[in-house]
Amino acid sequence: MVLGGCITNQQQQCLQIIGLKDSSFPLKYLGVPITASQLTKIECASLVQKIMATVQLWATRSISFAGKARLINSVIFGMYTYWVSIFLLPKEVTEKITKICRNYLWGGIGDYKKVPDISWQQTCQPKSQGGIGIKEFAAWNKVTILVLEKDLQDKGRVQNRLQQPPNIGLIGRTGL
């Protein structure tokens, strides 16, 4: 539990009553770091490490190019989406994840430095437009942030409507 804005004695009493330990930021909840400010690339290192470990495990298996593309679009993109649905990830983290996926797709392992056959932008194009259909991580990060902003705006509008007094007219009364 993180307590702020009260004296130490009150904090200790609250913690004793509830039976929890005092904590400080950053802390982890459901595998994601919770901070009082924007995430740094250091706080996102666990995501990058999980993705790298996953790719290194896959690299030990014989997987076709289409299978690699499918794994990137499903498993890695799922991990990434979980994080970006909560936070705006630093650009460096998104670039690192893109690099790992690109290297795995073209070279078979996450840290391989093979020159790709086509650009990553072309790779991320839909199949109907000549691409491979890999989802672009940076674009998805921006889209999820826009969705979060819209949700916050909608919640603000609903809250404002709830705080306004009801518009009750004087129906049926005369002489007022």
- What can be said about the biggest beta sheet? 2 strands, antiparallel
Gross geometry: extended
Helix fraction?
A: 40-55%
What is the succession of H and E elements? Answer: HEEHHHHH
Average pLDDT, all residues: 78
Number of strands: 2
Please give the oligomerization state of what you see.
single chain
Protein name: Reverse transcriptase
Give the tags.
176 residues, mainly alpha, two-stranded antiparallel ribbon, 53% helix, 3% strand, extended, Reverse transcriptase
Give an account of the 3D structure.
This protein has about 180 residues and is mainly alpha-helical. It is built from six helices and two strands. It has a two-stranded antiparallel ribbon. The model has no long low-confidence stretch (mean pLDDT about 80). This is Reverse transcriptase.
What's the gist of this structure?
By secondary structure, the protein is mainly alpha-helical. The protein contains six helices and two strands; from the N terminus they run αββααααα.
SSE blueprint and pairings:
Layout: H1 8-18, E1 27-29, E2 32-34, H2 45-59, H3 65-84, H4 91-107, H5 120-123, H6 137-163
Antiparallel strand pairs: 1-2
Helix pairs in contact: 2-4, 3-4, 3-6
